[in-house]
Design brief:
alpha/beta, 6-phosphogluconate dehydrogenase C-terminal fold, 2 domains, elongated
């Protein structure tokens, strides 16, 4: 409270019934239980979340007696907790939204809230959300973590200390919280496995493949062109 992040604490869960908007900002695996508790309050608030996966959340919301629209601000980093907060966290970042049973007026209100926070809202469905995030967020986390672990095991801390900015960039996500990511991985495992299979298929995994100049050049040039675009 001394930092101004919390202005009030409710004594009873029933007190949330008077809210207009409730944002669930907890690990994704706890969202279904929270939705059940909120339903018991009889709240008429618009309920949303900030979870990194959406299929399980939307399934839970369909069973709960609350007005819900899913949300996911794509603005995180490897850091967590209050110390990682900053005023421009959402500026210019996508805020993915999944409509459920809120209706057009409340969906529009949620869009307005995200814009007011500086984000760029985009509506999608839960399956599309989870598949895209598996490829552009969740699989990169796994790759970064695996690269850090494999490299450290192979060359030890002294070898890792010799690394440059490329290794630092590639392994930045290895500092992420395992508690948070376990829930994400377990609720999107199928699409993440698909994404990792795709990455593995692009990797030259033998010395002969690495010496195949045309194939390596094609891989680099195609990736470079896509990144530049």
């Amino acid at each position: 409270m001394t930092q101004g992040a919390i202005t009030a604490v409710v004594d009873r869960i029933e007190d949330l019934a008077a809210c207009d908007l409730i944002v669930i900002a907890t690990p994704v695996q706890t969202v279904p239980q929270i939705l059940e508790v909120l339903a018991l309050t009889g709240t008429r608030a618009l309920v949303t979340d900030v979870s990194s996966t959406k299929r399980m959340v939307m399934d839970a919301a369909s069973r709960a007696r609350v007005t819900f629209a899913g949300g996911h601000p794509v603005a995180g980093s490897e850091s967590s907790g209050l110390a990682a907060a900053r005023a421009d966290l959402f500026d210019g970042k996508p805020w993915l939204l999944v409509s459920a049973n809120a209706g057009e007026a409340l969906d529009a209100m949620l869009t307005t809230v995200t814009v007011a926070l500086g984000a760029k809202p985009a509506w999608t469905d839960a399956v599309t959300h989870d598949r895209v995030m598996a490829h552009v967020s969740h699989a990169p986390q796994v790759v970064s973590t695996a690269l850090m672990a494999a490299s450290a095991e192979a060359v030890g801390p002294d070898g890792v200390a010799w690394s440059g900015s490329g290794f630092a960039d590639m392994t930045r996500l290895a500092s992420s919280s395992s508690d948070m990511w376990q829930g994400i991985l377990s609720t999107n495992a199928d699409f993440i496995a698909e994404a990792l299979d795709g990455i593995a298929a692009k990797l030259p995994t033998s010395s002969q493949a690495l010496m195949d100049t045309p194939a390596v050049r094609d891989l680099f040039e195609r990736a470079r062109a896509i990144k530049k675009g």
